[in-house]
Amino acid sequence: MKLAISGKGGVGKTTFSSMIIRSFGDMNKKVLAIDADPDANLATALGIHDAENIIAIAEMKDMIFERTGAKPGSIGGFFKLNPKVDDLPDTASVKKGNIKLMRLGSVKKGGAGCLCPESTLLKALVMHIVLARDEVVVMDMEAGIEHLGRATAKAVDKLIVVVEPGRRSIDTAERIRRLATEINLKNIAVVGNKIRSSRDEDFLRKHLSDFDILGFLPYADELVEADLNGQSPYDVDSTAKDRIRQILAVL
User: Fold this and answer.
1) How many C-beta atoms lie closer than 10 Å to residue 110's C-beta?
2) What is the CATH code of the structural domain delimited by 2-250?
3) What is the CA 119 to chain-centroid distance, rounded?
4) What is the pLDDT of residues 203-233, one digit of tens each?
5) How far apart are CA 72 and CA 94, in angstroms?
6) pTM above 0.85, yes or no
7) Domain spans of the chain?
8) pLDDT (tens digit, 9 = 90+) per residue, 97-115?
9) Is the Cβ–Cβ distance between 2 and 130 less than 8 Å?
């Protein structure tokens, strides 16, 4: 199963991603967790120690130069468009039980885009991960889908947009769906987070009536405390864990 998780910053996207990943791990599934959001901290949310020491793929300058034949940061010139990436999920990841985690990092780019060695390598890596790997893949994306291209979008089983009760969150979900439609990614669903009452559920059902809604996660002080303490939300007792299992059953 290949899942991409997106949503507006602050909606709890990384918390949701980490709980999905840890749940798969407890089901004895091999999971490849991809932190594709430069502002997220999926490693900490997963309970991986020394998370701050994990080097992002985009920052591995020597490796990028070796694989592409060009120095990171350079634009134009000649470099390999199909660099070797099939070994990276095993050699450039950190492990926790059945889970392997990779940080993609961000590519500094000007204008509308970047045809540069690090961008090319990241796209090749994501394509390999989605098309060729046989484990569960969960990608914690930023508030968009820029790491996905047309070739990979068709192989993503579900793009899950995490939303909270609020107008801006709904607007972001609509924008992400438009971006996904442009690359023919049609398997889109939403998960409501930070739900305080049935009114919050009704609000999201009303304003996202044409979305597939997988489920709702409650607002929980335990999860807020876990975040403040740098603890994995999966390691605290909360009703959210049962809701996550229900969402996995639907998937």
Assistant:
1) 7
2) 3.40.50.300
3) 17
4) 999 999 999 999 999 998 888 888 888 889 9
5) 23
6) yes
7) 2-250
8) 999 999 998 765 443 345 6
9) yes
